[in-house]
Amino acid sequence: QVQLVQSGAEVKKPGASVRVSCKASGYTFASYALHWVRQAPGQSPEWVGWITTANGNTRYSQKLKGRVTFSRDTSASTAYMELNNLRSEDTAVYYCARLVSSGNLDLDYWGQGTLVTVSS
Amino acid sequence: QSVLTQPPSASGTPGQRVTISCSGSRSNIGSESEYVFWYQQFAGAAPKLLIHRNDQRPSGVPDRFSGSKSGTSASLAISGLRSEDEADYYCATWDDSLSDWVFGGGTKLTVL
Questions:
Q1: Taking a C-beta distance cutoff of 8 angstroms, is the pair B61, B76 a contact?
Q2: What are the φ and ψ backbone dihedral angles of B92, each rounded to 5 degrees?
Q3: Which residues of A touch B102 (CB under 8 A)?
Q4: Which of A44, A51, B30, B56 lies at 20 to 30 Å from A107 by C-alpha?
């Protein structure tokens, strides 16, 4: 069965960086792009960006462009999100999700989420 | 403040039909080429795809759920309301002006 398993919760200080991993199983990793979505406590989801797992192409949200970087290791069926220069407003649950069809936002499988807490 | 406006709450009794609206603009929902997606989220869980491409249900989603789009607005309708439908619902679409995928502020559905 399709699964996306993310790395565990992180607590970081302002200015630090965090890397979240998303390991896929149950399907051919390079056949589906992955989106990253975050959700601050009590807020609606916010799109972070996507990575085309086949070739590594990326697209980032305008808000986070310059601070966020996606990468992937196809041999390990794992995608990564790194967010730099963390601020308190980056505190959120970060999700990876599999994209069904290019150019859309039909995300059919989601990771369990990774809570990133930014606090001094 | 989201560019997609949803009512913060909605409610209904079991068996009723409830509609949740999602209001946007010409740069997002009102753009003919942009589809609207709906997600359902239970507390402590990841969002679940409920409707894609305005009105399409993924396999496994009951036909009690339906979506529509008209002009700069979209709607999610739930008929035959059940207690297990109690959740948060979010609309989402691409915004041409922002060049981002955007989500609505969410609607908390209560089944009375």
A1: no
A2: -155, 150
A3: 47
A4: B30
Residues of chain B with pLDDT under 50: none
DSSP strand pairing (B73-78 vs B65-70) = antiparallel
pLDDT digits (tens, 9 = 90+) for B57-82: 999 999 999 999 999 999 999 999 99
Contact B47, B40 (CB under 8 A): yes
Q: How far apart are CA B84 and CA B109, in angstroms?
A: 10
What values do phi and psi take at A90, rounded to 5? -85, -5
Query: Does A101 score more than 90 pLDDT?
Result: no
Give the whole-angstrom CA distance, residue B79 versus residue A98: 29
The pLDDT tens digits for A61-73 are 999 999 999 999 9
Are residues B100 and A106, on separate chains, in Cβ contact within 8 Å?
Answer: no
Residues of B in contact with A112 (CB under 8 A): 46
